[in-house]
Specification:
The protein is of the alpha/beta class and about 300 residues long. It is built from 9 helices and 8 strands.
Length: about 300
């Protein structure tokens, strides 16, 4: 049951990176509207603090925290299994977890960490949960991208950036991948009740640089203090896309400040999107036609 104060009561939402930055504020915003939440994050203490903040809102929804480093395929699969055991249907999936790594890192599964976390976790988790989204009356997928995508490019012979790595290059590539994934996902979901959109939170204060050395962290903190907007500003569009009736049925768009906005020509390249989909499916070990099979 819903009411005017809690219009999302009874609706279920999963948010990755839901215990810090815009993910935290999106979680609070959706909880305040009454949604039930599963929050994914790496830090258990932040998870507990977020759950306590949600309880203080006094809204009717329930929230739980699951700990995982989503740069690892095995963790994405574990989270998907646990979510499927907990919920038969999922109304909203917010792909938000991300990182910015000053030095090139590889995961224990052999993938460059930025690409693994910022793109492959979105791709993999979405496909693993698509049947739960299909079981909801009108599933919504929201993926957090960035204006950095304008500087992004994809070299399929060097996706892991073993050559010419820089933090900005890796991040921009991953944010371009978020848009290519979203637009191809929306195309493949045509005719279903599931929508897929991406958004740009703008330059907001986040924990994105927290996994780097103290010099980088201090520099990032200074930039945030001088130039960034508060994270709740970016989170507002996530909440809007995930739950507002005004965007019911809207799919395959890129939003900023609650409005569709321009994106790069490269991000709208259907051939690039299809090839990225194919490569991503191979990297995470799912069939390329997973959606077609599940949505038949």
């Amino acid at each position: 049951m819903t009411d005017q104060q809690h219009p999302l009561a009874g609706r279920r939402c999963l948010i990755t990176g839901g215990t810090g930055g815009i993910g935290l504020h999106a979680a609070l915003g959706l909880a305040e509207l009454g949604a039930d939440l599963i929050l994914i994050g790496r830090n258990k203490d932040r998870g507990e603090r977020t759950l306590a903040a949600i309880r203080r809102l006094g809204a009717p929804g329930h929230a739980r925290f699951m700990s995982a480093d989503l740069s690892l395929r095995t963790n994405v699969e574990r989270i998907a299994r646990e979510v499927c055991e907990h919920w038969e249907a999922l109304d909203m999936l917010v792909n938000n977890a991300g990182g910015f790594y000053f030095r090139r890192e590889t995961t224990e599964e052999g993938l460059e960490r930025t690409f693994a976390l910022n793109h492959l976790s979105y791709f993999h988790l979405t496909l693993l949960l698509i049947d739960r989204l299909a079981a909801a009356p009108a599933g919504r997928i929201v993926s957090v991208s960035s204006g950095a995508h304008w500087n992004g490019s994809l070299d399929f012979n060097n996706l892991q950036l073993a050559r010419g790595y820089s933090a900005w290059r890796a991040y921009s590539q991953s944010k371009l991948a978020n848009l290519l994934f979203t637009f191809e996902l929306a195309r493949r979901l045509e005719g279903s009740q599931i929508t897929a959109n991406a958004m740009n939170p703008g330059f907001v204060a986040t924990n994105l640089a927290k996994d780097n050395g103290w010099v980088v962290r201090i520099g990032a903190s200074l930039m945030y203090a001088l130039f960034a907007r508060p994270p709740e500003t970016g989170a507002d569009t996530i909440v809007y896309l995930a739950g507002d009736p005004q965007v019911a049925g809207v799919s395959g768009e890129y939003f900023q400040a609650r409005n569709p906005t321009r994106c790069s020509r490269r991000s709208r390249d259907p051939e690039l999107a299809r090839r990225l989909w194919q490569v991503s499916a191979e990297l995470v070990g799912v069939p390329e036609d997973t959606l077609a099979t599940l949505l038949q």
